[in-house]
Amino acid sequence: MRLPHPVYRLYERRLAASLPRDRVPRHVGVILDGNRRWARSIGESTAHGHQAGADKIAELLGWSEDVGVEVVTLWMLSTDNLNRPADELDPLLDIIEHAVRDLAAAGRWRLQAVGSLDLLPAHTSAALREAEAATAEVTGLHVNVAVGYGGRHEIADAVRSFLREHAEAGTSVDELAGQFDVEHIAERLYTKGQPDPDLVIRTSGEQRLGGFLLWQSVHSEFYFCEAYWPDFRRVDFLRAVRAYAARERRLGR
């Protein structure tokens, strides 16, 4: 139930003020889920839902900046989503391209494309690369745009990269087996060099990762929100950060 506007604003301010600044997540991953169901719930088209979801992204990034988050990873399109019918996928890719261009044009955030870009149409992968290049020198919030992303694909790509590198150097299979370590995968992930996600948020009430950052999220805290992504509010984000700050993180120890 939504609170009356003045009460909501007061609650939001108090919630923001109560966050312990020394326990804010450095890296937040967000599964932007529920666009289609949100659209159906108000009698609108799927494309309308995806556009509403895209319009929410800049707000999320602003909220993340406000509390001191350093990296945000946005899962906008999975490898499984690439199997959707063309009459849904094509408009969605168009919306993603425009959203990424708009984020780059803002000049506030450094964008990085993460995913199997070779699986995407050439115009989509080009838009992602152009946004990367345009924001390469931006020093603000680092934003990973996960398009054509699947956790299994990412791990397979990392292993493939390792094997190719050593095959070119003439390393034998036995030598490879003896040398192989978890760090060889970590060093070749799409997010190499970044902190692993401290907090992963999924909207729409679904309580599963669905393949999101499978390797990196081994020690992440998870927060599942009932709101569909277009309805996700600042107060929902602050509640997720508050829940994270209240947890005792053991990090496998």
From TrEMBL:
Annotated Gene3D superfamilies: Decaprenyl diphosphate synthase-like (3.40.1180.10)
Cofactor note: Binds 2 magnesium ions per subunit.
A single cellular component GO annotation: plasma membrane
Highest taxon of the lineage: Bacteria
List of residues binding substrate: G34, N35, R36, R37, W38, H50, S78, T79, D80, R84, R202
Enzyme class per UniProt: transferase
Binding site for Mg(2+): D33, E221
Pfam families cross-referenced by the UniProt entry: Prenyltransf
Keywords per UniProt: Magnesium, Metal-binding, Transferase
Transferase recorded as keyword: yes
Name of the molecule in the record: Isoprenyl transferase
